[in-house]
Amino acid sequence: MAGHSKWANIKHKKAAEDKKRGKIFSRLSREIMVAARTGSPDPDWNPRLRLAIDKAYAANMPKDNVERVRQKGAGELEGEAYEEARFEGYGPGGAAIMVDCMTDNRNRTVAEVRHAFSKHGGNLGTDGSVSFLFTYTGVISYPAGTDEDALMEAALEAGADELETNDDGSMDVLVDPESFSAVRDGLIEAGLEPEAAEVTMRPQNTAELTGEDAERTLKLLEMLDDLDDVQNVYTNASFADESVAATG
C-alpha cells in the first residue's frame, strides 16, 4: 500500500476539492486547537502542534487565522471545545478501517459513523479491534524517477528510519513521527522536494479487494471522509481491480 493505493489517490484528489470549499481549513483548525489544548501551546515544545501548523501553512491558511485558532485551543481566546474520538471497524470485504474524528457532539458523530458503516455493508467494532494493524509513522513520498541513491543518502543523513520502493517506482521515506519535521526539512534542504508528506496510521499488511467488495468499500471510505467531524480515514484495503471507478 505505502500511500499509493487507490484510496490514497482518491484522498489526494478529494483534498484538492475540500480546499476549494474550505473544508480543509476546518479540519486543520480543529487539529491545531486540540493540539494546543492537549499539549504545550508553544509549537517549539509541542511536535503535534508544530506539524498541524506546518500543514495549515502548506494549505495556504492565513497566518492570522492559524494564530487565532492556536489561541482558542490554548484558552487564550474563547472558542469551541472539541474532543478526539476514534472509531474502528471492518468494510464489506473484511478490510480494516479506522476513523479519527474531532467533535463537539460525540453522540452525533457516533450516529453518523455507524450509519456510514451499516449503509455500505461494514461493521463498526470495539476500541482496539483494528488499531493494532496500523503503525503511527511519518511518510515522505517521492515519485518514480527520483534519484534513489541521492534520496537514500539524504534520508539517512537527515535521520530517517527506512527508504521503501513501491511497485510503481515511487519511494517512501519512513520516519519516526517525533523526527518528521526535521527529516522533511532536511530532505528539502538537500534539494529533494517531496510529492507528499504526512504523519499517518500506516497498515502493517493489506487486504486485497476486487469487484463488488472493492466498490462498496470505496463508497464507505468516501462517505466517512465526507463527514464534517472526520479528520482522517485509514484502511489496509488494497484495490487490485484498477477498473473500480471512484464514486462521489
Descriptive key words:
Alpha-Beta Plaits; alpha+beta; 3 domains; 248 residues; four-stranded antiparallel β-sheet; Arc Repressor Mutant, subunit A
Note down, in words, how this protein is organized:
The protein has 248 residues and is of the alpha+beta class. It has 3 domains: 6-74, Integrase, N-terminal zinc-binding domain (Arc Repressor Mutant, subunit A, Orthogonal Bundle), CATH 1.10.10.200; 83-124 and 205-239, Alpha-Beta Plaits (2-Layer Sandwich), CATH 3.30.70; 133-203, YebC, transcriptional regulation domain (Alpha-Beta Plaits, 2-Layer Sandwich). It has 8 helices and 10 strands. The chain has helices at residues 6-20, 23-38, 47-58, 63-74, 106-119, 148-158, 180-189, 211-226; strands spanning 83-90, 96-103, 123-124, 134-142, 162-165, 171-175, 196-203, 207-209, 230-235, 237-239. The protein has a 4-stranded antiparallel beta sheet with strand order 3-1-2-9. The radius of gyration is 18 Å and the shape is globular.
Shape: globular
How many angstroms separate the termini?
Answer: 22 Å
Helix content: 40-55%
CATH topology of the largest domain: Alpha-Beta Plaits
Strand content: 15-25%
Biggest sheet, in brief? 4 strands, antiparallel
Secondary-structure element order, N to C: HHHHEEHEEHEEHEEHEE
How many H/I helical runs? 8
Multimerization status: single chain
Q: Regions with pLDDT < 50 over 5+ consecutive residues?
A: none
CATH class descriptor name of the largest domain? Alpha Beta
Structural class: alpha+beta
- Average pLDDT figure: 87
